[in-house]
Every structure is written in structure tokens, then in C-alpha cells.
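Hi L.,

As promised, Transposase:
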Amino acid sequence: MFKTDQSEVMGTILTEPEGRRRRTPQEKITIVHETFQPGSSVFLVARRHNVNANQVFKWRKQYQDGSQTAVSAGEEVVPASELNNAMKQIRELQRLLGKKTMEAEILKEVVEYGNAKKWIAHGPLLPRDDE
């Protein structure tokens, strides 16, 4: 297995630390699309692009979940739990807004009814609405 002959290299020795390669969303989508081609496998595509196969599986899952669309549009992807919390808060705020709108409408009707019946007196310090 081991040879003293220098002509055969068993592996590559890295002399400098390699930084993590950042792939653009378009590169990720291209790699994922390659895995969906007939006759290709995730492992072969990953090897061809020097990517860990587990990473390609993760990208495929993200692509299928639709989060890759947000990444390619330059939008931030948020966890589903955070989205659910935000949706709950929106519903609560809509409910409160509806309640306050209804209260304002009722008060407006009461004032109009009081003005029509002359129940609301205009004191000397308050100007009339028509002035």
C-alpha cells in the first residue's frame, strides 16, 4: 500500500488553511438542479462541485421548501416558529384594531344622536360646530 516512490501521490497535503467557500444562491440552485437530472446522484454532483453531499441534501430540502427563492431574491429567511409568532401578533393587533374601530363608530353615533336630540349642550366655553 505504501510506496517509497514519489511518483504516486496518495493525497494532497494542504500547506495553507483553506477558507470556507461561499456559494451564491444561483450556484446552489444550479447544483440542486443537477441532482434532479435523470441518472445523476447527489453524491456524484457533490463530488463534481467539491461540496459535501450532506450540504447538497440540505440545499435540496431548502429548495423544495421554497426558502431558496427568498435567498435568491436577497430576502432574509426566518424560522417557521418566528413566522408563526409574528402571524399571531398580527392577528391580535387586527382584533384590537377592529375593537377600537367599533368603539369609535359607536361613540360617533352617540354624539350624532345627542346632537340631534339636543342632549349635548354647548357651554359658553365651547364653540358650536357650525361656527
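The first helix runs from residue 25 to 35.

Thanks again for sending the construct details.

K.
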